[in-house]
Amino acid sequence: MKTHLVRTHRSAEDFPRDEHLAWKIAEVATDPAPVPAETAEMIVNRIIDNAAVAAASLTRRPVSNARAQAQSHPYTQSPSSTHGSTVFGIDGTFSPEWAAWANGVAVRELDFHDTFLAAEYSHPGDNIPPILAVAQHTGRSGADLIRGLATGYEIQVDLVRAICLHEHKIDHVAHLGPSAAAGIGTLLGLDTGTVYQAIGQALHTTTATRQSRKGEISSWKAYAPAFAGKMAVEAVDRALRGEGAPSPIWEGEDGVIAWLLGGPNAEYQVPLPGPGEAKRAILDTYTKEHSAEYQSQAPIDLARRMRGRIGDLDQIASIVLHTSHHTHVVIGTGSNDPQKFDPTASRETLDHSVMYIFAVALQDGTWHHERSYAPDRAQRPDTIELWQKISTAEDPEWTRRYHSTDPDEKAFGARAEITLKCGEVIVDELAIADAHPLGARPFAREQYVAKFRTLAEGVIAPDEQDRFLAAAARTPELQAGELSQLTFTVTGDVLARAPKSPKGLF
């Protein structure tokens, strides 16, 4: 990997285009380095993972509405055309940017797919819907798709390693627009200049505040990454037509760094693969066993482990979760969000309350993507009582481990101190989730398939499950025009469970 110093440059400075970060990223996207077998294997796992969580969310209102919007933008096929992109759950082909939108919402709605945490947060699997949609629309092969996704993951992970957005209250999808645009550039075999312009446009149109993940969290939390993917598709389309982007987008005097991030004097060290270097960043990412914000994955496993030592939960006087700064201020009491203790809060808000999550995991000994968030579950008096006893505290050691670049040290867990009414204190800690690559039960293909089967049960017919899984396993071998197999359809009875989408503009 080569590290690039990125800082603001005045307009009067001599700053050649080939030194811009967007150009450096475009060079990575257009580098013909082969994709390692282990990278391709993990990409297939994440295609399966995305489909699994999309199946589980298929009949939820935000997903139904996004699907209805896509259905208003069909792509009519001629007998000789294979253009258009698929949308989870339904037949037909649709305009690629709208397919990317609908599928992006389905994938993110339950906050249940892959993650990478470093200087910033991210869900790199958000790259799959826009890159796959363009691959289907343009009749590309499975090998092309694998190359495009390897780039999407690589660029997003590299940006997340280097550039913190949340400390400046910028939403993390600002790293997704550029990564998806770069991945599409790789997929299509575009030249460096065109990819450069698409990256600049994608970043410029996808920078927004983090209010989408603060206070009363709404369905826009799922829509924001889908919007970034849709913007990436449109940015590539415009760049192909010869349209340019603001530049230098990161380093300009009125650019992203100067006014949205660290300011005119800030410097960032961005690692990117050198010429000919394989793209392996996906191997550093991890998926979720539980449908909850990633920093609550280890606390869920910890709660399940500790509950047997406590016995009667009514004897708990207080619980303090000692954890990293990120966990404390994003999903803990350091956020100062009263909504995180509100029994009537939205699912999206409860998903970002580690106090609620730890209480329910202690009581139930399990976690379910629907039942654990149900209103009657959140409003149980004994749950509310326990929930109110839980707080978080930042521990510098957990913060240090959160930011460590050593994979054996990097941790996203917590130390739980449970004080009983009798004065006894029960202490335990867990650094990483059981499903993490270094955890007690790391996910491999078998676990990804099992997750798909579990979430698809009652949604996708068994023979359709079999067909999709077989196609996904063959992704690297799929020929041009065969990528439409990387979706699933469901019966009308299943779709009828979704709330009817009100009429919008389209």
**Helicity level:** 40-55%
Q: Determine Rg (CA atoms, Å).
A: 22 Å
**Mean pLDDT over the residues:** 95
Q: Categorize the overall geometry.
A: globular
CATH class descriptor of the largest domain = Mainly Alpha
- Could you say what the CATH topology of the largest domain is called? 2-methylcitrate dehydratase PrpD
The structure class reads: alpha+beta
Distance between the termini: 46 Å
**% residues in beta strands:** 5-15%
Give an overview in words:
This protein has 506 residues and is of the alpha+beta class. It has two domains: 2-74 and 94-284, Orthogonal Bundle (2-methylcitrate dehydratase PrpD), CATH 1.10.4100; 295-430, 2-methylcitrate dehydratase PrpD (60s Ribosomal Protein L30, Chain: A). The protein is built from 20 helices and eight strands. It has helices spanning 21-29, 37-57, 61-71, 96-108, 128-137, 142-162, 176-188, 192-205, 220-240, 256-259, 297-310, 325-330, 347-350, 354-364, 375-378, 381-387, 396-403, 445-456, 462-473, 492-495; strands at 2-7, 85-87, 90-94, 267-272, 316-323, 390-394, 414-420, 425-430. Strands 6-5-7-8 form a four-stranded mixed sheet. α1 (21-29) crosses α8, α5 (128-137) packs across α9 (220-240) and α14 (354-364) crosses α16 (381-387). The longest helix has 21 residues, at 37-57. It starts with a strand and ends in an 11-residue tail after the last helix. The model has no long low-confidence stretch (mean pLDDT 95).
